[in-house]
Amino acid sequence: MSDPATLRARAEGLAEALPPLLADAEHLAQAVLLGEHGRRRAGAGDEFWQYRPAHAGDTARMVDWRRSGRTDAHFVREKEWQAAQSVLLWVDDSASMDFSGTRTHPSKAARARVLAMAIAVLLTRGGERVGLAGTGLPPRRGPLQLLRIAETLAGAGGAADYGAPDARGMAPHSRVVLFSDFLGDPGPVEKTLTEAADRGVKGAMLQILDPTEEAFPFDGRTIFESMGGSLRHETLKAGDLRGRYLDRLAARKARLADLARATGWHYSTHHTGEPAQASLLWLYRALERVH
What we know:
Pfam families: DUF58 (PF01882). The protein is an alpha/beta fold. 38% of the residues lie in helices and 18% in strands. It is built from nine helices and ten strands. The strands form three sheets. Strands 5-4-3-6-7-10 form a six-stranded mixed beta sheet, sandwiched between helices. The protein has a two-stranded antiparallel sheet with strand order 1-2. It is elongated, with a radius of gyration of 23 Å.
């Protein structure tokens, strides 16, 4: 057996080889406390979860007579759901996601990648299979899959101004999480979620925006240009556009929220100027609520 010094050196060498994205995601994931299995709900499994009062329609075989014998009521012993789910992550790699309003905030792409990686870590710890949409990386379990996801995300980057998810590759009744600013044409997003809902696919949309995009702090002569360079607009009175811009942004958020409700998905917004932990916890709970 190797001596402690050799074992430590090998461990440190392995740690140094971890992609920085995975290291950051592991640190972020520590903010979310998990039980032995993340999906806390009744279902097929071996582990006891909870007792519940018997309902009309429960058979005598379902009643736990030892527990029920302590009171005048009948109780059913439920086991925890332990069947692994397939969860597909789509991280928008378009040029729009590279935007950052200030040097103190990460780009939308950087925040999307670390959140996607962190939820992958949490889901993997919960026994789920996780994959990346549009990358040829199907859902699998285990630490090696996390390394594959981290390496793929770290090398991502597209030329298009705006990205759009694709329903292809979404297995029936699987779960999906979409990370994007959703500032492009909403038509493809609506098409994808409608097709996904038809297959029984549900999940969550996290819209990631920079604080500058929320506040529109521009005034006077300003040149607006898309990150990919395909769109350009110059104005001498940028302040006059603020009201219309904010109205259109609010309308876009409302449209996404309505789409999520109509398809049984969950929707939320994250700002890169805020800590990532709250949105990670929201994502995890959103997936817990998906049935």
